[in-house]
Design a protein that fits this description.
The complex is a heterodimer of chains A (100) and B (203). With 100 residues, chain A is α+β, with helices and mostly antiparallel strands. Chain A is 59% helix and 18% strand. Chain A contains five helices and three strands. In chain A, strands 1-3-2 form a three-stranded antiparallel sheet. In chain A, helix 2 crosses helix 4. In chain A, 30% of the residues are buried. The longest helix of chain B has 37 residues. Chain B has one domain. The chains are: A alpha+beta (100), B mainly alpha (203). At the A-B interface, helix 2, strand 1, helix 3, helix 4 and helix 5 of A face helix 1 of B.
Chain lengths: 100, 203
C-alpha cells in the first residue's frame, strides 16, 4: 500500500491557507486587502503572515504612497510550489479516504 | 485519515483554497466607470467642436479624460491588488489610447482628418480593444460591444456625413454609456456577492 503524504503544517492552518490562496491569484496585495478578504484581526493576520514570511512563502515590501505607509505581500516561487504540493497531497489524501 | 470528520476537514480546506482564489480574481474587473467617463468625454468633445468650432476641442478633452482616468485608476489600484489579467487589460487600452491620440493628432495637424475616416479609425480601434478584452475576460456583452463598433466602422465608410455622425453618437451611447453602466452594475453585484461569501478564518 503506498504511503500517504504528509500535509505541510505551515500551510495547513486555515488563515495561512486562505492567505496563500489569495496571494496565488494576484501579483501582490496590501495588508488591508488581505484583512478585508479574510475577516481576520490585525494581530492574527500579522502573526500568520510573519510565519509565511519566515518559511519563505511570501515576500514583504514596505513603502510610502502619498505619505501613507503601505505593506505589500506577494507569493514567492517557494510559496507557489508549496501550495501546489499541498493541494496535490490534499487530493491524494481525499482520494485515499474515499477508497477506504 | 479515514474518519468522516477528517475527510470533511480536508474537503473544507480544498473549498477554502478554491473560494479564496476566486475571491482574488474577482477584484480585477472594476473598469465599468472608464467606459462611462470616456463616453461622456467623446460627447463633450463632439459638442465642443460642433458648437464652438474649436480646433482644440478633441485634444484638450482627450488629454483631460486621460489624466482623469490615470488619477482615478491609480487611486483604485492603491486599494486593490494587481493581477496579470488586470495588467493585460490595462496594456490593451493604454496602447490603443496612445495609438489613437497620436494618429488623430497627426491627422489633425496635417489637415488629413475628415469625418468618415475619423469615425472609421476610432470605431476600428475601439472594436479591436473591446474584442481583445472580451476574449480574455470571456465576456460576451463586451464582444457584442465590439460588433457594434465594427458595424459603425463599416457604416461610416459607406454613408453620408450626416448618417456617419448619427451612427457615431449612437455607438458611443450603447458601447460606452450603456455598456459602462451595465459593467458597473455587474461589478457591484459581484463585489456584494463576494463580500457576503467571505468569512473569518483562524490559524
Amino acid at each position: 500500500m503506498p504511503e500517504l503524504p504528509e500535509l505541510n503544517p505551515v500551510i495547513h492552518g486555515k488563515l495561512r491557507l486562505a492567505l496563500l490562496s489569495l496571494l496565488s491569484s494576484v501579483e501582490e496585495a496590501e495588508f488591508t486587502w488581505l484583512r478585508s478578504k479574510t475577516g481576520s484581526t490585525d494581530g492574527n493576520l500579522g502573526a500568520q503572515l510573519l510565519k509565511l514570511e519566515e518559511a519563505g512563502y511570501v515576500a514583504v515590501e514596505k513603502k510610502f504612497v502619498q505619505r501613507k505607509p503601505q505593506t505589500l505581500y506577494r507569493m514567492t516561487d517557494n510559496g507557489r510550489t508549496a501550495l501546489t504540493d499541498y493541494v496535490q497531497a490534499l487530493k491524494q489524501l481525499l482520494g485515499a479516504a474515499i477508497e477506504s | 485519515m479515514t474518519s468522516n470528520a477528517e475527510k470533511m476537514d480536508l474537503k473544507d480546506r480544498l473549498s477554502l483554497i478554491e473560494s479564496m482564489i476566486a475571491e482574488g480574481r474577482r477584484t480585477t474587473e472594476s473598469w465599468g466607470w472608464t467606459f462611462v467617463l470616456w463616453g461622456v468625454a467623446y460627447y463633450i468633445a463632439i459638442a465642443w467642436s460642433a458648437l464652438g468650432q474649436s480646433s482644440i476641442a478633441w485634444s484638450v478633452t482627450m488629454t483631460v479624460a486621460g489624466v482623469l482616468t490615470g488619477v482615478i485608476a491609480s487611486r483604485i489600484a492603491g486599494r486593490h491588488p494587481g493581477t496579470t489579467t488586470g495588467r493585460a487589460m490595462a496594456a490593451i487600452w493604454i496602447a490603443m489610447g496612445i495609438s489613437m491620440f497620436i494618429l488623430m493628432m497627426c491627422l489633425g495637424i496635417t489637415g488629413r482628418l475628415e469625418l468618415h475616416m475619423a469615425v472609421a479609425i476610432v470605431a476600428a480601434m475601439l472594436g479591436t480593444a473591446n474584442a481583445t478584452s472580451s476574449i480574455i475576460l470571456k465576456w460576451k456583452m463586451q464582444f457584442a460591444s465590439a460588433v457594434v463598433w465594427w458595424a459603425a466602422m463599416v457604416t461610416a465608410l459607406f454613408t453620408s456625413e450626416y448618417v456617419t455622425g448619427i451612427v457615431f453618437l449612437v455607438a458611443i451611447f450603447f458601447c460606452q454609456i450603456v455598456f459602462g453602466i451595465y459593467g458597473m452594475i455587474s461589478e457591484s453585484r459581484r463585489h456584494k456577492g463576494g463580500a457576503s461569501a467571505q468569512g473569518a478564518y483562524h490559524a
